[in-house]
Predict the 3D structure of the following.
Amino acid sequence: MSEHDAHYAGGLVDGARILQLMGDVATELLIRHDGDEGLLRAYESVEFLKPVFAGDFLEVYGEIVEVGNTSRKMKFEVYKVITSAQIPEQPSACDVLDPPLLVAKAVAVCVVPKDRQRRSK
């Protein structure tokens, strides 16, 4: 996350930015599955578990867990994998988190209209 992503004091990144990253993964999953970007219908659940700050590196994982006629249910997990070392005299110092820290998770439903589905599964 960059300084541009920080929305609150102390460099805190807002949850909307994390949801945007999940949406990017959803788009990729739908393109791979259906050959179309599809549309986000709803988030069934969203949990923000740990704070994310400017300077953190995130990895976002998603998978399609249910396939309906036009709906695709997906699960997402967002992990912080690198964080700032918080050394004032060395502001670019970072630490790799081992294990990575789960910072958010969600379940969403996307829709790909029948006339947009180019791949059969």
User: Anything to note?
Assistant: The helical segments are 15-34. The CA atoms of residues 46 and 111 lie 18 Å apart. The first strand starts at residue 6 and ends at 8. The longest helix spans residues 15-34.
